[in-house]
Amino acid sequence: MMTCCILLMALLLPPQRWTAQISGQILDRDGKPMAGAHITYKNVGIVEDPDTEHPRIIEGTGRTYKIKTDKKGSFVMIGVDYGIYEVEVKAPDGSVIYTDKRRVGDNADRDAANVLTVDLSKAAPVGAVAPGAETNLAAEKKGKEQEQLIHQENANAAKINRLVIEFHGALRSQDWPGAIKLLEQLIAIDPNRWEFYQNLGTIQANLTHYEDAIQSFAKGAEVAEKILPNAADQEEAKKNIGDLLVSEGDAYNRLGKLDEALALYTKAAGISSKPAMAHYHACNALINHGKTAEAVERCKQAIAKDPAQWEFYQVLAGAEDTLGKKQDAIETYRGGVEAAKKMLAANPDAGHTKNGMGQMLNSEGNLLVHQKKYDESLAVFSQAAEVSAYPAMPYFNLCATYFNLKRPEEALAACDNALKSDPTMADAYYIKASVLFTRGREIQGVYSAPAGTSEALNKYLQYAPNGPHVNAVHQMINRLDGAAPGNYQPAKP
């Protein structure tokens, strides 16, 4: 009797559960740890008889595991049941940045993928599942062929996971031939992932293999267009297609095939949910081929589609300046500066934006000088010096403008600021020396100039031994050394 009871109790015990530890790290577009990212693992399949030659995949439990990344962008989950999981990673703002399908199992199992590494800075999210390509494991009934298909998909997913990890390693070590080989293997396993073609084309283009890159981007766009009807996010899918077409156009442009490039930029603008970038690339391509007037129109289209991008204004203003439309260029630079200010208000640490604003202000100041609007130019140069990554240039422009306006004290101060930023700026030494030299006087046949004059003159010769002011500098040096004064007049900067 006792034996029967024991057997009965044994039958009531739950089946043994095997669990694993999942860990990983999420890095953002700048390669920095993404703290507070939301990671979700949903069980959609269970592997039966995993140690046999033909394991079966049955319906999953639907159990969901959720966790957030720490300050280092890392996470660890323990006690995760073995099985097939849909993985989703969301940024702290809730936007989906990565999706995949992974098998969780014994670390000794080659098909298991218990470590998740997502580095958005290296390439497009190559591990993402293509829209419309997901396995429908939630279907109520599955035949033998369906189960075999699911098994094959999961086997491929495991291979893809391993290759993706190797691919990121190749990127980190800058092993470009190895990265290309891995992408070719990934495409062979799953030719319906446009991201694989995009990454392949990007590497090929960076290696100047433009013909190969064209084929890769074209194939990626073809795949992306094919799955567009089933895409969960139509707007994002259209943007992806546009990006691929723009990249293909860039490769043609590198080969000097402008017509082919423009056709692709136009096609990209027509299909992308964010066409501004396609118009911007067309504008740059036209400028590089000397078709400035046509470039102006394409840049204006880019601004019309996205007026928040300061880079569009900078390129347009440069084109307008080339065409002699100085006032138009000034107004465009001002529009770009306002766009940059708004960006900086949202992200004060955006150094690229701050530097761009400095460049536009400096260019605007030069145009104002050309129009003899000196007071306006001085104000603009001063603003440029505050934000530019290379403040020596706007400070020098202040120095030269003050010098031409015969305001020597302000010219000296501006030149000194320029030289603090760049001690090798020869022209700043020249103007400084010219100002100081004019303050000298002849005493008992010897011309005496203020302290610092000789140093500034010699610094000019040191950094510009063949510069345009060499003769004038030598005349000043000879005068200080007691030579005949001659007919020396300080040259204009």
Structural class: alpha+beta
CA distance, first residue to last residue: 112 Å
Strand content: 5-15%
Principal-axes shape call:
elongated
Portion in helices: 55-70%
Alpha plus pi helix count:
18
Radius of gyration of CA atoms, rounded to a whole number: 33 Å
Mean pLDDT: 85
Count of DSSP strands: 10
Low-confidence stretches: 1-16, 123-142, 483-493
Can you write the helix and strand succession as a string? HEEEEEEEEHHHHHHHHHHHHHHHEEHH
Question: How many strands, which pairing sense, and closed or not: the largest β-sheet?
Answer: 5 strands, antiparallel
Task: Outline the structure in words.
The chain is of the alpha+beta class and 493 residues long. It is 56% helix and 13% strand. It has 18 helices and 10 strands. It has helices at 2-12, 144-172, 176-189, 194-206, 210-226, 234-254, 258-271, 276-288, 292-305, 310-322, 326-346, 351-370, 374-387, 392-404, 408-421, 426-438, 453-463, 470-480, and strands at residues 19-27, 38-48, 56-59, 64-68, 74-81, 83-90, 96-104, 115-119, 441-443, 446-448. Strands 2, 3, 4, 6 and 7 form a 5-stranded antiparallel beta sheet that branches. A hairpin with a 2-residue loop joins strand 9 and strand 10. Helix 12 (351-370) packs antiparallel against helix 13 (374-387). The longest helix is centred in the N-terminal third of the chain and has 29 residues, at 144-172. Mean pLDDT is 85; it is low at 1-16, 123-142 and 483-493.
